Amino acid sequence: MLEAHNIRVRLGKTEILHGIDMAAAKDQFTVIIGPNGSGKTTLLRALTGEIGFGGTVRLNGIDIAGARPLDLASLRGVLPQSANLSFPFTVHEVVRLGLTMGVDTDVDIPARIEEALAAVDLTGFGGRLYQELSGGEQQRVQLARVLTQVWEPVFESRPRCLFLDEPISSLDIRHQLQIMQIARAYAEAGGGVVAILHDLNLTAHFADHVVLMNRGWVHASGDPRQVLTPSNLEAVYGCPMTVGHIPQGMDFFVLPVIEGGVSARTL
Amino acid sequence: MSISLEATSTNPARAYAGDRTGSARRMLLVLAVLLLITAIFSLASGATDTSAFSVAWALVSGQDDLISAVERVVIMDIRMPRTLLGMMIGASLAVSGATMQGLFRNPLADPGIVGVSAGAGLGAVTFIVLGAGVLAPVAALFGLYHVPFAAFLGGLAFTFALYRISTSNGRTSVATMLLAGIALGAMAGAFTGLLVFWADDEQLRDLTFWGLGSIAGATWLKVLAVAPIIVPVLLFAPFMARGLNAMTLGEATAQHLGVNVQIFKRIAIVLVAAATGASVAVSGGIGFVGIVVPHLLRLFIGPDHRYLLPACALLGAIMLLFADAIARQIVAPAELPIGIVTATIGAPFFLWILLRRRGLMDI
């Protein structure tokens, strides 16, 4: 559903992305990983049309460069890394902003808002002021807002897409898993999900497709087992890693190899 | 003012936590009634004292049985234009303020702060001082309207300059715009100061009076001159509400929510410049209405612009009529410029709001 060809982004005099090709399919949870400064967020901002870029991005066959914001809004929701509000909106009101341009207007709006809040484990938070919440709670409110915008993963027989920039960066482990499950469920229901993550183990467990970025290039992409290999990860992150397998429940895990017996005791 | 009443509340019995639309609607109703009462009192009070009830009856019935013919003339030709002008200017200042604040995502943004008022002021002062000399032919062309027209042009020119300075590649940076507004305001202040230096005694008195803001010189002509600008802006403002709501999450997110941000910003800026320019032109610098009214309303009904904008129009009108009543009474039979009253009430009030909400707002 999402196809990007030869994406180049220049910020000032520096070229940040040097010609990225990537695709994200419907029914799949696509995860972009890579070290800090590898261009993950820049890529996501190009894919959503937030910044100017060279190359083409097509969403369901529509070239996003010439598309109307309203048409794009009905096709995809975008979760930014963080959002500050300058006015005292309640949680209920923030989530309602997802319905700003209301594609399906006959929906029971307050009930949908409650449903979205329940999905991110914030039942009963509707009356709280957004600015008084913790960072992790704010992040989940924003996700609820994005979910109300593109509630049905398939709308008018077209798949919709979620773009999530580090959706679990300030969440505790329980809510990290919960958000990952929301993303998985969205993909399994026929939508597409493109997320930037830093957690390699959650990536290994939940992703269908991994794009490993390094210095503005795609280092490797494809099935998690083929991308998350010790040699790929060491080349990109610059620290040795080993990929382990455990039989039940989880598929496999990734651990950094800490050399020379460095620990809190010896430091 | 049009607000969609058909949306939401399919079942009024259910109340959702954090959903303030119900109280916002009640507030609009209360404000509308208050505005009506304030307007009637504004018409009734003055040197020729009339009871508010008699005035209301005379207006509704068209009969003169409760007021004298002289009173009717006083009310219709002197007080009516003043009341109408006060209502329009109060509404326009408050709605401009709320729109700017939404657009800039800053509760302190106000046409007074981003230099629109300063630009309008510079335009007006230029013609007050040079209208008799260098610019005499232009002044003659516009006759009585040369000062209001110059103020309007100044406001518009400054807004566009501001827009050009802070926009690159079709994107406007809010931070650059605020800072550029401060610089432009300082520049307008410097030029205004230079012009004042050249002004003669009579012009200086004009400048002082105008600079402090007043609606004392209201005439039907002035009402008719600004109504075609202010009324359409007020009627259009609620249509910007959803866009302004989305903008509070940032320009990028507003775009993702389906707002065509670049076009939306252009429309909002032109409308604010038009309303502010028209207001400054006929009334000078009436400060703090644009910042106090939206703040006060956000405390009660929240920042949802679908209700905030109409409520601002109503409360802005009420506040200005109230301030005008004080201006007329406090040093009677003389009159204070209304700007002194709004600043005296508004400035401490503004500081109070600031201190109260300091922890909540990311200023």
Short descriptors:
heterodimer, A: 267 residues, alpha/beta, Rossmann fold, 6-stranded mixed sheet, 4-stranded antiparallel sheet, 14 strands, 31% helix, B: 363 residues, mainly alpha, ABC transporter involved in vitamin B12 uptake, BtuC, two-stranded antiparallel sheet, 15 helices, globular, disordered N terminus
Q: How would the blueprint of this fold be written?
A:
The complex is a heterodimer of chains A (about 270) and B (about 375).
Chain A lengths: L1 E10 L2 E11 L4 E5 L6 H8 L6 E6 L2 E2 L5 H7 E4 L11 H6 L12 H11 L15 H15 L4 E2 L2 E2 L1 E5 L7 H16 L3 E5 L3 H7 L2 E6 L2 E6 L1 H4 L2 H8 L3 E5 L6 E5 L11
Helix pairs in contact in A: 4-5
Chain B lengths: L20 H24 L7 H10 L7 H36 L11 H15 L5 H7 L3 H21 E2 L2 E2 L1 H25 L2 H12 L7 H17 L4 H7 L3 H6 L4 H23 L5 H13 L3 H25 L8 H19 L7
Antiparallel strand pairs in B: 1-2
Under the CATH scheme, which architecture of chain A would be assigned? Answer: 3-Layer(aba) Sandwich
CA-based gyration radius of chain A:
19 Å
Biggest sheet architecture of chain A: 6 strands, mixed
Strand percentage of chain A lies at 25-35%
Description of the structure:
The complex is a heterodimer of chains A (267) and B (363). Helix content of chain A is 31%, strand content 28%. Chain A contains nine helices and 14 strands. Chain A has helices at 40-47, 69-75, 91-96, 109-119, 135-149, 173-188, 200-206, 224-227, 230-237; strands at 2-11, 14-24, 29-33, 54-59, 62-63, 76-79, 154-155, 158-159, 161-165, 192-196, 209-214, 217-222, 241-245, 252-256. In chain A, a hairpin with a 2-residue loop joins strand 1 (2-11) and strand 2. In chain A, helix 4 crosses helix 5. Chain A is globular. With 363 residues, chain B is mainly α. Chain B has a domain at 21-110 and 201-354: ABC transporter involved in vitamin B12 uptake, BtuC. Helices cover 72% and strands 1% of the residues of chain B. Chain B contains 15 helices and two strands. Chain B has helices spanning 21-44, 52-61, 69-104, 116-130, 136-142, 146-166, 174-198, 201-212, 220-236, 241-247, 251-256, 261-283, 289-301, 305-329, 338-356; strands at 167-168, 171-172. Chain B has a two-stranded antiparallel sheet. Chain B is globular, with a radius of gyration of 21 Å. Chain A binds chain B through residues 45, 48-50, 52, 68-70, 72-74, 76-78, 80, 83-94, 97-98, 100-101, 108-110, 113-114, 124, 126-129, 131-132, 149, and chain B through 7-8, 10, 14, 16-20, 105-107, 169, 242, 245-246, 248-250, 252-253, 255-261, 298, 302-304, 357, 360-363.
